[in-house]
TrEMBL record:
Family designation: Belongs to the HMBS family.
Domain Porphobilinogen deaminase N-terminal positions: 6-224
NCBIfam families with a match to the protein in the record: hemC (TIGR00212)
Keyword Iron-sulfur attributed: no
Name this polypeptide is given: Hydroxymethylbilane synthase
Signal peptide as annotated in the record: none
Transmembrane segments: none
InterPro entries: HemC (IPR000860), Porphobilin_deaminase_cofac_BS (IPR022419), Porphobilin_deaminase_N (IPR022417), Porphobilinogen_deaminase_C (IPR022418), Porphobilinogen_deaminase_C_sf (IPR036803)
A Gene Ontology biological process term: heme biosynthetic process
General function of this protein: Tetrapolymerization of the monopyrrole PBG into the hydroxymethylbilane pre-uroporphyrinogen in several discrete steps.
Organism for this UniProt entry: Parafilimonas terrae
EC number: 2.5.1.61
GO molecular function: hydroxymethylbilane synthase activity
């Protein structure tokens, strides 16, 4: 690696640049020079169409993948939840950074909005005032996973489309007549934009690999793979692999409300996952605890259990609705 400058491919959004800079700093700590190379993605240029309507897996990653395979860059840095479970041919995972918060966050307009959804005394209530008082709430998100879980709990909600980078989306919350919007905690916390008027949605399961950053490189680039693998966080890598195996088993993509979370406590791996219909009315869950040395196939087994318990019917309904 002597006298080599590693070219780090990144999108131009503040969050993407922050993530790429973390990787640059990790390489610098190994006395390896690195520079950022900015690549535009289709997901950045189309800020109107909801993510689930674009119909393209890897919408935020394929431009970087192409640049990597064309030797314009040496590594690419992604939010791992955006990466398709089947990576492009010729590209491999080199490192997963230690996971930040996996939680979703509700950014609200006014404290009365929290009362409407039963967030009282800094905790989420198990009842829904929205349903009891027939109150109507308007919230914004473009994630089918968030929409489905929110409607499962608060069916009397109007959902508005929310696209753009973190700064743009936060500004839209203030300038539109909404009660609030849903964000990934990691996304707004990493660039110090989490507003005071926000609360963690503790009951909402995250997207598989949410809060994790992945570094990918060309399959045949052993030197760069090794340099990046030095800062691979094994615990996070295991957790997100299990979650992505669950997603892969359910054959889910951006248009399927699939959620998963894996935690390692002592020598035990704890997994929670679910799939919902897009309207939130149907839900199949799975919860598992296994020994750490028996966790390799946990995501696949959990996915198969969900399919057997009715998840296959939900997937079929979603596919038929899209035809």
């Amino acid at each position: 690696m002597a006298n080599t400058i590693i070219r780090i491919g990144t999108r131009e959004s503040p969050l993407a640049v922050w993530q790429a800079t973390q990787v640059q700093n990790l390489l610098t700590s190994q006395n390896i020079q690195a520079e950022l190379v900015y690549i535009k993605s289709e997901g950045d240029t189309d800020l109107i169409t909801p993510l689930y309507a674009l119909g393209v897996q890897g919408i935020f990653t394929k431009a970087l993948d192409a640049a990597l395979l064309n030797n314009r860059i040496d590594i690419a840095v992604h939010s791992m939840k955006d990466v398709p479970v089947q990576m492009a041919e010729g590209i491999v995972q080199a490192a997963v950074l230690k996971r930040a918060s996996y939680k979703d966050v509700f950014v609200y307009k006014d404290k009365t909005d929290l009362e409407k959804i039963g967030y009282i005394n800094n905790a989420w209530s198990n009842y829904s005032p929205l349903t009891i008082h027939n109150a109507q709430l308007t919230i914004a998100t473009s994630s089918v996973r968030r929409i489905a879980q929110w409607l499962n709990r608060y069916p009397n909600t109007v959902i508005e489309n929310l696209r753009g980078n973190v700064n743009t989306r936060l500004n839209k919350v203030q300038t539109n007549n909404w009660n609030g919007a849903i964000f990934a905690a990691a996304g707004i916390e990493r660039i110090n934009l989490r507003p005071e008027n926000s609360v963690d949605i503790d009951w909402m399961l995250p997207a598989p690999a949410q809060g994790a950053i992945v570094v990918v490189c060309r399959k045949d680039d052993e030197a760069i793979f090794n340099a990046c693998n030095n800062f691979n966080d094994k615990a996070t890598a295991l957790c997100v692999k299990i979650e992505r195996d669950f997603l892969k088993t359910l054959m889910g993509g951006c248009s399927t409300p699939i959620s998963a979370l894996t935690k390692v406590e002592d020598n035990t791996v704890i997994f929670n996952g679910n799939i919902l219909s897009t309207d939130g009315k149907q839900k199949v869950e799975v919860n598992k605890r296994v020994a750490l040395n028996e966790a390799a196939a946990l995501g696949t087994l959990a996915g198969e259990e969900v399919l057997q318990n009715g998840g296959d019917k939900i997937i079929e309904q979603i596919r038929n609705a899209g035809k």
